[in-house]
Amino acid sequence: VRSMTVEQVGKQYLEELTRRSLLLVVERNDKGRVKTCQMHDLLREL
């Protein structure tokens, strides 16, 4: 983990949260990367 950049760590967290459906992908860019996302409603209630 120490050899990873902040951006790489952030990307891993984003991928994990979307995989678990805690964040929902709203839009992707032309390269397939997440452009916008939103938090799942159930997560807000926690």
From TrEMBL:
Coiled coil: none annotated. Gene3D superfamilies: Winged helix-like DNA-binding domain superfamily/Winged helix DNA-binding domain (1.10.10.10). Residues 3-46 form the Disease resistance protein winged helix domain. It comes from the Eukaryota. This is Disease resistance protein winged helix domain-containing protein.
